[in-house]
C-alpha cells in the first residue's frame, strides 16, 4: 500500500441519541469531538439520530400512523367533485 494516502482507521464511539445507546466501531469518520466510554478510554465521538437500535425496521416497533387510510383521505379530499353525465 502507498503511504499517506489512506484515511486514519481507528475505534470511534457512535451514540444513538434516540435510543441512548453507544457503539464502539472501527471507522474512518472524521470528528473533533471526544467522549469517555464505559471502559475508561476516550474515543472520537459522533452523535447519530437513527441507528439499528432505534430504527423501526430493525427494532420491529412501527410508529402508529393516522387512523385514516390513504383511500379514505383521498375520498375526503375530493368528496366535493362530481362527474357530469
Automatic annotation (TrEMBL):
Annotated Gene3D superfamilies? Ribosomal protein L31
Entry's Gene Ontology cellular component terms:
ribonucleoprotein complex; ribosome
SUPFAM superfamilies assigned to the protein according to its UniProt record, in alphabetical order: L28p-like
A Gene Ontology BP annotation from the UniProt entry:
translation
Domain of life of the native organism? Bacteria
Q: Which residues cross the membrane?
A: none
Sorted alphabetically, the keyword list is: Ribonucleoprotein, Ribosomal protein
Q: Does the keyword Ribosomal protein apply?
A: yes
A molecular function (GO) term: structural constituent of ribosome
> Which family is it part of?
Belongs to the bacterial ribosomal protein bL31 family. Type B subfamily.
Quaternary structure? Part of the 50S ribosomal subunit.
Q: What is this protein called?
A: Large ribosomal subunit protein bL31B
Q: Which gene encodes it?
A: rpmE2
